[in-house]
Design brief:
Distance between the termini: 75 Å
């Protein structure tokens, strides 16, 4: 039997075909996006090798963006570019603006933590490229970092700047010796060009813990990446460059 369709029937079939085709294209695009757009893993999703591979990068220094301290359920934050009752002007104007911490490897592959003085962008400012001056002769190593397999964090002896800031926030004679890099947020990029293309800020969290009679106080230093580029020596004590921050 031959079934003849009228004009309305043919138009209805045409619309059904078009709708099915559009649905197929949309599903195909979604499938492709799921397979190809793989963003950076979170710290919990990184293996030890991946985490350390992203931490140990020569062109990157970590600058202080913000500081938070928590005691039980009370949390206070310090905007390091503004006056704060928690830190005096010496720390806000002379210490924090110069902090630049780096994690690397030394002889025989041992983990090395160092800091030096560096001017330029710090704190919570919009992402961009900023002129800076590095002072190579101020480089000091605080010791060796080590991986804590149980907690999945990087433990390390604190640089003097972080030690003094934690002590000042404590308001006591306490000076911490060590801290750790938390697994979240995780370092994202493995090179300066990756950071430039991403055009977004990258952060880690250095955690220092103080045990008191009343309980534990946690100090969290939110460190933001400053990727160095266009570096040139001005003299033995100064290197000029641009920080992608």
């Amino acid at each position: 039997m031959i079934i003849k369709h009228g004009k309305a029937g043919r138009e209805r079939q045409t619309w059904i075909c078009l709708a099915n085709s559009l649905l197929f294209v949309m599903l195909s695009l979604l499938a492709c996006d799921t397979e190809t757009n793989v963003g950076p893993k979170s710290g919990q999703g990184l293996t030890k090798a991946e985490f350390l591979g992203r931490m140990i990068v020569q062109e990157r220094y970590w600058r202080i963006e913000e500081i938070a301290l928590q005691e039980e359920d009370q949390i206070a934050t310090v905007n390091v570019r503004e006056v704060s009752p928690l830190l005096n002007s010496h720390y806000l104007n002379e210490v924090i603006p110069m902090v630049a911490v780096q994690f690397g490897r030394g002889y025989f592959g041992k983990g090395v933590v160092s800091e030096m003085k560096m001017s330029g962008a710090y704190g919570n400012v919009p992402f961009g490229e900023f002129k800076c001056v590095m002072m190579p002769r101020t480089v000091k190593e605080s010791g060796e970092w080590a991986w804590d397999s149980e907690r999945k964090v990087m433990k390390f002896p604190l640089p003097e700047s972080i030690r003094s800031l934690a002590g000042a926030l404590s308001g006591s004679d306490w000076r911490p010796d060590s801290g750790y890099v938390a697994s979240e947020p995780a370092p994202l990029f493995r090179g300066v060009e990756e950071a430039r293309r991403a055009a977004s800020s990258e952060r880690i969290r250095i955690v220092v813990e103080e045990q008191t009679e009343a309980g534990k106080i946690t100090y969290a230093f939110i460190m933001r990446a400053a990727w160095m580029t266009d570096v040139e020596y001005r003299d033995a004590e100064h290197k000029l460059g641009v920080s992608i921050y």
